[in-house]
Q: What sequence folds into this?
């Protein structure tokens, strides 16, 4: 079967789209809240352009959800879900960034500091993931619910003024 004939995305593609939409939706909500406080016209224009770009990204990715290997439906997450998801994204990005930084480090004392920071980020990620899973904010073993949550957050972010 050729790629054009496939009717669903692969699981790994679906999960990558999930990560991109979830991360960008949370970021979009923050940018839309923060732009109101940006007084510098140049910085405000950069924010405006970033908001438009991220909105475009989300809008282009959302149609791929219909190609996911399962259907979706679930109730909207509370602000606690947003706040915990934002922290999860921060800690996940911290793990990635510290891992990369360690590979670029030649100074042993700096490597030790970065390694300690990495371990704290890993532990923090574990704590917030467990919190989100327990509260039902991150149904990581239920792809249908996971993708449904993404779509609801993305739509909320796109509809914000």
A:
């Amino acid at each position: 079967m050729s790629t054009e004939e496939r009717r669903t995305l692969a699981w790994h593609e679906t999960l990558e789209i999930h990560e991109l939409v979830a991360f960008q939706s949370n970021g979009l909500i923050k940018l839309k809240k923060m732009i109101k406080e940006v007084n510098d016209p140049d910085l405000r224009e950069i924010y405006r352009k970033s908001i438009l770009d991220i909105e475009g990204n989300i809008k282009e990715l959302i149609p791929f959800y219909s190609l996911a290997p399962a259907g979706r439906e679930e109730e909207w997450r509370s602000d606690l879900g947003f706040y915990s998801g934002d922290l999860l994204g921060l800690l996940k990005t911290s793990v990635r960034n510290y891992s990369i930084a360690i590979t670029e480090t030649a100074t042993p004392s700096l490597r030790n500091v970065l390694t300690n920071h990495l371990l704290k980020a890993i532990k923090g990620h574990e704590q917030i993931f467990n919190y989100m899973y327990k509260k039902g904010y991150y149904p990581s073993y239920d792809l249908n619910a996971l993708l449904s949550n993404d779509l609801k957050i993305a739509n909320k972010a796109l509809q914000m003024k």
Observations:
- The CA atoms of residues 70 and 144 lie 6 Å apart.
- The chain has two domains: 6-74+140-161, 78-138.
- Confidence is low (pLDDT under 50) at residues 71-77.
- The chain has five helices and no strands.
